[in-house]
Amino acid sequence: MSKTGNTTISNSELESLREKELILQELQKTAKLGWWKVNFETHEIQCSDYVVDILGLKGNTLTTNQVLNLINEKYRQRVSANLPHLRNQNFYDEIFPIMTRFGEMWIHSKIGNRVIEEDGTITTIGYSKILEEEENILISKAREENQLKELMLRQYSLSQSLSKFLKNPDSDQVITDTLKEVLKQFDGDRTYIFKYDKKKDTQSCIYEATKPGVQPEIDTLQDMDSNHIGWWSKQILNNIPIIINHLDELPPEAETDRQVLARQNIASLLVIPLASSDGIWGYMGIDIVNRPRLWTHIDKEWFFAISNIINICIELRTSEREAREQQQYLQKLYDHIPIGYLHLQLIYDENGQPCDFKYLDSNPAFNRISGTPPNYFDGKNAKDFGIEDPESLLRLHNIVLQKQATESTRFMEKTGLQYRLTLYSPGENEVVALFTDITEQQKAIKALRHSEEALRNIYKNIPVGIEIYDKNGDLLDLNDIEAEMFGFNRKEDVLGVNLFKNPNLPADKLEELRQGKEIMFPLIYKFSKIDKVYYSTKYTGSKHLSVKGTCLYDTNHNVENYLLIVIDNTEAFENYRKIEEFETLFNNIAEFSKVGICRWNPLQKTFFGSDVWFYNLNQQPRHVQDIEDVHEFVCPEDTVKLQGFHQQVLEGKSREFADEVRVRVGQEWRWLRVRFKVKEYNPQNEIIEVIGLNIDITESKETEQHLLKAKLRAEESDRLKSAFLANMSHEIRTPLNAIVGFSALVAETENIEEREQYLSVIQKNNELLLQLISDILDLSKIEAGTFDISLAVFDVNNLCKEVICLHTMKLTTEDVTLSFEEHIPRCFIYSDRNRIAQILSNFINNALKFTEKGSIRLGYHVTGERIEFHVQDTGIGIPEENIGHVFERFVKLNSFIRGTGLGLPICKSIIEKLGGEIGVESTVGKGSRFWFSLPYNPTVESKEIDEQALFLPD
């Protein structure tokens, strides 16, 4: 076994390879044929064993010079000239004599293929055949005759094409005709020229000629992507021709290119790169459609020549066109340049002294500045115009001698223009005069000086401070306002301070300024921070400033200066603060008084309303255009009134409005007093200014209603008092009459039983009169506010038993029972014992008056921190409509029952004084239940109590 690289070859396979190699060597000897390979990087030629044997070489490698030395001297130069084509072309076909070890012999050499390695190395493989003497003579003679005829024919055609190109200005037509002639000579189907656009990386067909019956494709071959046919583009741009006898000759990496050619039915082609001084700009090619073509050496050489000639013609015409365009450009520049041009030639006498000068040429700008018609001076001498100034001639002569330009500013009286005259000598005895119109420039300079003066005045007197710093931040200059603003005695004292070290300026803003950004910010400038630290100032305290900073740039956009503009807002800030305080005060007053204000222009659809205006209308403050946009919650009836006024304002029929409107807030209505007044009426200028206010009068309305109710109650009370007084006079006279009458009877009678009976009547009327007077006194104390309460701890059960016992003795019938029922075994409270006894007695007395039979029950119960007493009877009851008036003063529901009607109102006042509540529940025919509740503390057990621990009424 044998190994070759990583492949293992068996002995049988190795023996087969050796046998094939021997056969190949024998065939080469028989055919007298050998191969060779040229490396253009090392300039070495590697040969087959047959070539080595024929030439008598010592090894398989030799240099190109060694090969050339073996060739016959007559043919050596031609072979040497064609040898470089092997590097760039795919064809080579030569017959020449060469010295062998058998003597001089004729060989026929042809190229086989060209290979470009991955590292860019180019190698060419070819073969050489030893010719028999007779074969060589016949082949050479026939070839030379055919080549001569073909060359003569093609040379004649080429000369005709060149002649047409030189005679015909239409180079496009000549090139197209030449391409057609090439088609005939090569029996081709399509010839073309492509041009590269290296910026777009595309290529386009600019010329094409086709054989009859072959479809032109120039229109479809525009702006083609060069990267799509990468192998093709790489070959052309590397100045390597593409010569293909058949598409199968294309290398594997040209598969995309092969597909593109196949779609055009191209079977064979010959393409030559076209180059200029700037490199490869395109290529010229010829296609053979639907059939292969074996390109001969003459074909290749001749097509090279044709392509080079066409390339030269195209470049020549391109240069001519560019030269023509340049000439036209220069002529337009000469005609339209704003600088006047005058070409002079000095004329000398026989002594070599200047005696005159001639006007050679002038341009329109000179005619405009001088006020002369075109060509007025051209070709004429100065003396023709009476110009004979020896000093001017001498000055021109010195310019010619010294070859130095001179400049001066002059005034042209004829045209009234100022101009700058430049004189220089371009050649021997010649002077060129350039006239530059500086009239507008002088005006601009004058205006600029005026502007500078104005700017200087502005800089000095503008009511804002200006500071200018250099690019390092050092202060260069400031105006007088700035010095006064910051308290400098002399601005020279602060020049040089650094902007970026000012402790009052915020660091972030200074950093933005460094970055080239424009800055603007408010600043509270505190002099305590900078005095004697940054600079000295006569000010103390602080100032409110507005600062704006920007960068100034040079022509290269580099920061050259920093500019700061400072506005003193201290006084304005104080005024604004006062206005703000006043506005705040006004808004607070408006909010406190619920007064809203507005301003409205119905023509311009502008409306302003204060916050209170919106709040009064149950709206959130917002921007609206029309006043009716805020009437969403206004009562519809009132909205109609407002809309009517608005319409009358537009029509000029009404100027004022005052009324009350209602606004819905939830489920309730809010009352507003609204007033409007037209302040300015000028509809011609779209001005109708209406001012208005609304005031929340809901509380006033409620107070008015309360006053009305109070008035009604007072009137009712007055009526009741009158009735009360009338009743009181009756109630007082009744017991007094009884007392007086029975007192007289007691004095007159001697019967003891009658006397006791009379004394009993007197006693009852005394008690009645006493109770009546007591009620009147209590009422007067309550109304005067001198009603006293005496608080103490007492036993509730003992009190109730005493009240029951007292009133049991007063019962006059057995049909009514009086009892103390619902209670707890032990109960003490801290309150006024006598007043509670008075209330219970009043409840029982009332029950006795209205209960003819049944029961009257006294009781109490405790619930949490409250104790509730009640007196329940089975009397006649109280109608439902009268229950609400039971505790009102001077109200007596039943005029047939004795009493003043003061008892229950007094009870109500006592209970409220003790911090309790009182009420009644009654059903007509079933009886009534009077009750009252008081605060209760279960810890109260004895008279020694801590009053702070008790629940005491206010």
From TrEMBL:
<dbReference type="InterPro" id="IPR004358">
    <property type="entry name" value="Sig_transdc_His_kin-like_C"/>
</dbReference>
<keyword id="KW-0808">Transferase</keyword>
<dbReference type="InterPro" id="IPR050736">
    <property type="entry name" value="Sensor_HK_Regulatory"/>
</dbReference>
<protein>
    <recommendedName>
        <fullName>histidine kinase</fullName>
        <ecNumber>2.7.13.3</ecNumber>
    </recommendedName>
</protein>
<dbReference type="InterPro" id="IPR003594">
    <property type="entry name" value="HATPase_dom"/>
</dbReference>
<feature type="domain" description="Histidine kinase">
    <location>
        <begin position="727"/>
        <end position="938"/>
    </location>
</feature>
<dbReference type="InterPro" id="IPR036097">
    <property type="entry name" value="HisK_dim/P_sf"/>
</dbReference>
<dbReference type="Pfam" id="PF13426">
    <property type="entry name" value="PAS_9"/>
</dbReference>
<feature type="domain" description="PAS">
    <location>
        <begin position="451"/>
        <end position="492"/>
    </location>
</feature>
<keyword id="KW-0597">Phosphoprotein</keyword>
<dbReference type="InterPro" id="IPR000014">
    <property type="entry name" value="PAS"/>
</dbReference>
<keyword id="KW-0418">Kinase</keyword>
<dbReference type="InterPro" id="IPR036890">
    <property type="entry name" value="HATPase_C_sf"/>
</dbReference>
<dbReference type="InterPro" id="IPR003661">
    <property type="entry name" value="HisK_dim/P_dom"/>
</dbReference>
<dbReference type="Pfam" id="PF01590">
    <property type="entry name" value="GAF"/>
</dbReference>
<dbReference type="Pfam" id="PF00512">
    <property type="entry name" value="HisKA"/>
</dbReference>
<dbReference type="InterPro" id="IPR005467">
    <property type="entry name" value="His_kinase_dom"/>
</dbReference>
<dbReference type="InterPro" id="IPR035965">
    <property type="entry name" value="PAS-like_dom_sf"/>
</dbReference>
<dbReference type="InterPro" id="IPR003018">
    <property type="entry name" value="GAF"/>
</dbReference>
<dbReference type="Pfam" id="PF02518">
    <property type="entry name" value="HATPase_c"/>
</dbReference>
<keyword id="KW-0902">Two-component regulatory system</keyword>
<dbReference type="InterPro" id="IPR029016">
    <property type="entry name" value="GAF-like_dom_sf"/>
</dbReference>
